[in-house]
Amino acid sequence: MARSRLTPERESELYEAVLDLLREVGYDALTMDAVAARTHSSKATLYRQWGSKPQLVARALRHTKPVRLDEIDTGSLRGDFHEMLMRSDDCQMERDSALMRGLAHAVHDNPDLLQALRELLIEPEMTGMDRVLRRAVDRGEVAADNPALRLVPHMLIGAFVARPLVDDRPVDQAFLTAYLDAVLFPALGV
User: What is the pLDDT of residue 7?
Assistant: First the structure.
């Protein structure tokens, strides 16, 4: 039997429902039955389209990601990073970081989830980040041998994880702008 295609609107609706459920119950309690009930679809359809819960979750996260790094090229590294920030709002950042904290916990017990997230979300992000940084090196903004280049993703993830832990406050544009200016750009010599 041929795999039926969902309309882009229906697919977006499904992905939003998956992320809403994730925020409500967490990864471990999220079931394909719950997704099917929430989206008025059959479990068989979900498995036929996505194969597994980890694949569905990773695709939902990828689909709803507001910023695609490889689309941004302002002509300067500072401009690129500030453009990334401007493409997301504080409310979305707070929702996304809460979701990522929950998933960071879930990957410890779910190797399939970790693999799906790496394949569908992390690797494409790393590729986009590498392009942004390579352009900065090519323009002469960052020295090619700067050891901080390979640590940029770690620094950015650290900001998202540390803010709620240290300050008991969500990550927002003002915090990330200050973080970029005080930590990331100086580390890169920008």
Answer: 86
